[in-house]
Amino acid sequence: MHAFDVLGDPVRRRILELLADGELSAGEVGAVVQPEFGISQPAVSQHLRVLRENGFTTVRVDGPRRLYAVDPAPLAEIDRWLTRYGKGQPL
């Protein structure tokens, strides 16, 4: 999946916003995203999976919990790509 396809979804962008402040469990992400978007926990898990499989997040197991964090590498690549078109100027 192309990076812009991944980030084109508002739920996935919101999840990344939440994770930008630090590591969160899937349940913590769901507690915010579910009421905001009216989606189920399985839907949140699917979005987390898309982010993980496309390199935007990392996950580590801590007992029964899965803790997610932003992986900045793909975002830096997107930033470099966008900067190229803005000639170094804010878009």
Quick recap:
Helices cover 60% and strands 15% of the residues. It is an alpha+beta fold.
Order of helices and strands: HHEHHEEH
What is the rounded Rg?
14 Å
CATH architecture: Orthogonal Bundle
Total of helices: 5
Number of domains: 1
Structural class: alpha+beta
Strand arrangement within the widest β-sheet reads 1-3-2
Choose one word for the global shape.
globular
CATH homology group: Winged helix-like DNA-binding domain superfamily/Winged helix DNA-binding domain
Low-confidence regions: none
Strand content: 15-25%
Oligomer: single chain
Biggest sheet statistics:
3 strands, antiparallel
Q: State the CATH class.
A: Mainly Alpha
Distance between the termini: 24 Å
Based on the model shown, name its key terms:
single chain; 91 residues; alpha+beta; Arc Repressor Mutant, subunit A; 15% strand
Question: Layout of SSEs?
Answer:
Elements: H1 3-7, H2 10-19, E1 24-25, H3 26-37, H4 41-53, E2 57-62, E3 65-70, H5 72-86
Antiparallel strand pairs: 1-3, 2-3
Helix pairs in contact: 3-4
